[in-house]
Specification:
- The protein contains two helices and three strands, in the order αββαβ.
- The chain is an alpha+beta fold.
- It has a domain of 58 residues.
- A three-stranded antiparallel sheet has the order 2-1-3, covered by helices on one side.
- The longest helix is centred in the last third of the chain and has 10 residues.
- It starts with a helix and ends in a 12-residue tail after the last strand.
Length: 85
């Protein structure tokens, strides 16, 4: 077991962007954009990625807290390796 190696910044994330919902490993199709007005400037946007199944759940979670700003399709880079965020 390599504890220090696990902290290395050399490790890359998944090839295909994944849904941000806890426990979900489905490919993301949507960018759910939000901010917390108590701590973020009005123009700042945080982004959660959502699969088709979890998009409504993530939007509802953020809307209940008045954090949701918009939802846009996730644009994949040529080859489908990364998102254009």
């Amino acid at each position: 077991m390599d504890l220090l190696g696990a902290l290395s910044s050399d490790q890359q994330g998944p090839e295909v962007p994944q849904c941000s919902r806890k426990g979900c490993v489905a490919p993301a199709d949507w960018q759910v954009k939000w901010n917390n007005p108590k701590i973020h400037s009005p123009e700042r946007r945080k982004i959660w990625l959502a699969c088709h199944e979890h998009r409504p759940w993530l939007e509802s979670f953020l809307q209940a807290r008045l954090f949701w700003r918009s939802t846009d399709p996730l644009k994949h880079a040529p080859g489908g390796a990364e998102a254009n965020l």
